[in-house]
Amino acid sequence: MKRLEALDAARFLAFCGMVLVNFRIAAEVAPGTDWANTLITALEGRAAALFVVLAGIGVGLSRVTAGVLLRRAAFLFVLGLFNMMIFEADILHFYALYFVVAAAFLTASPRGLWLGVIAVVALAVLANLVFDYDRGWDWTTLTYADLWTLPGFLRNTLFNGWHPVLPWAAFLLIGMAIGRSQLETTCMQHRLIMWGFGAVVLAIFPQVLASDPNLVAYLGTKSIPPGPFYILAGAGTSCLVIGLMLKLWPRIEKLRLGPVLTAPGRQALTLYMAHILIGMGVLEEAGLLDGSLTAPQIIAYALVFCAASSVYSLLWFRRFKRGPLEALMRRMTEPRRA
């Protein structure tokens, strides 16, 4: 099947959104109601959700075996643990566990995948009724007290971390279901746009109708805590962006912007690590991870970093077929095809 380059471009957009959100977290930017803070807040939980849905689409489109998927999961888990030592809001170790869930659904029908989505969300709702979501967290400093203990790590990873398996694995299964459809057809693109818009609108109503503050928080569309209507809103936003990118891609190509968007999208794993090791590293060396930056300043820095990532990627692909970490993962998980 011909590679759908619009998906690579969408992945780069998701990466840019994650860079904005993560740079604000790392730099301890003071919250506010200005346009910059509002923009970054709007991206919280949406950019990462798009990233995961696109991963699911990739699994759905490919012929990857369960063995390869589990080896990729192991690679990402180890890489994520290393990354967590620098930036605790890492998504890679969560990503690895989503792949473990996905391995159980590789041969599932689209209906089976959607039933899996419902089951994951239902388990997350049940977990919130049984366990204390706030346990381990200091919300004023965004630190997790017992993260590096086994009980704390499992609780954080499965239940109340930044991107817990329950319910975030649902995004990957949704992506797999979407990947089984005819994405190259105009009809499917229109459906994604309409379904996405409808889901986003529908997700807003429960929090408006609820009166209890705790219920409002859980029925809301924020990623913390990730309630069922957050999943609906995040999936809707992802479908909307993906549908629009697929629909508009011919026009984007005519403007000769395709390579600028697809090249970095094809090595999102490498760039994800780079935005932490290099992007945040530069800020740390400059002594700017102390809350001194404003939201507009962090947006400007993030945009410069994303632009530099695109330029680097274009230059890299002149000589190499895959990004550095992408090539390493392929060599370690699929040595016969490396």
Automatic annotation (TrEMBL):
InterPro entries (alphabetical): Bact_Transport_Assoc, DUF418, HGSNAT_cat
* Domain DUF418 as annotated: residue spans: 192-333
Domain Heparan-alpha-glucosaminide N-acetyltransferase catalytic as annotated: residue spans:
3-189
Q: Which residues cross the membrane?
A: 9-27, 39-61, 68-86, 92-108, 113-131, 161-180, 192-209, 229-249, 269-286, 298-317
Kindly state which keywords UniProt assigns to this record, in alphabetical order.
Membrane, Transmembrane, Transmembrane helix
Keyword Transmembrane on entry = yes
Determine if Transmembrane is one of this entry's keywords. yes
The protein depicted here goes by the name: Uncharacterized protein
